Fold this sequence. Notes:
Helix 1 (35-50) packs parallel to helix 2 (65-75).
Amino acid sequence: MAWGAKFAIASTRSVLHGQRAVLGLAHIPHSGGGGEAGAFVRLLDQVAQANPGVGAFVADDAFHGTHIDQLQTSTGIPVISPPKRLDKKRGSMIIGQYG
């Protein structure tokens, strides 16, 4: 389920200082369709087809392994996304005060 604006927006930096250029926009359905990540996978597939010079996609933490794998496989473009938060029970390492 998507909360908030319910739209997926793909953008890039503009040549104008402090501006963004919108590359695509898609509605995120209330249910079904893979939710936020599913909408972004479909949108970024379209962005990749329309813009062959895309070097990488940077995503928020809505993307996980399945979505990253699907997008990288379909486009050949790497996806940069933060890892899931780990804790002592889920395999993290504590280094000093971090972890």
